[in-house]
Design goal:
Bound molecules: adenosine monophosphate, zinc ion
Number of helices: 2
Helix content: 10-25%
Number of domains: 1
Radius of gyration: 14 Å
Strand content: 15-25%
């Protein structure tokens, strides 16, 4: 847990969120500023700043994170129609919250282009 991290505060229940899914390793909640009809953040509970901070020990969070992404897609009803998963890594890629998270976006027809 990091003291001044907004996602750590959500995990600790100090800041409210609209929770979609939770298990031992992961919390998933609605993005406060959604970019699509379905926009959920899948967040490992362990404070890891970004993909760049993954190492041989903490990389084990990736498996429960991907499992949770599938569950969130089912819960939000986008599993069949398709959804997009984005991880911004570093300020240059638009990362604003320095706690690793996966954006799960869906509920709208998306184009083939990423950018
Ligand atoms: P990123 O730019 O990849 O770091 O994404 C951070 C995301 O967190 C943005 O899409 C924000 O809208 C979202 N966000 C920031 N604060 C909150 C919050 N308190 N509850 C839910 N989502 C948040
Ligand atoms: Zn954190």
């Amino acid at each position: 847990m990091a003291d001044n991290c907004i996602f750590c505060k959500i995990i600790k229940g100090e800041i409210p969120s609209t929770k979609v899914y939770e298990d031992e390793d992961i919390i998933a909640f609605k993005d406060i500023n959604p970019a699509a009809p379905v926009h959920v953040l899948v967040v490992p509970k362990q404070h890891i700043e970004s993909l760049e901070e993954l190492d041989e020990e903490n990389i084990k969070v990736v498996v429960p994170a991907h499992r949770a992404i599938k569950k969130v897609a089912e819960i939000t009803g986008v599993a069949d129609q398709g959804y997009r998963v984005i991880v911004n890594c570093g300020e240059g890629a638009g990362q604003t919250v320095m706690h690793l998270h996966y954006h799960v976006l869906g509920g709208v027809k998306m184009g083939e282009k990423i950018l």
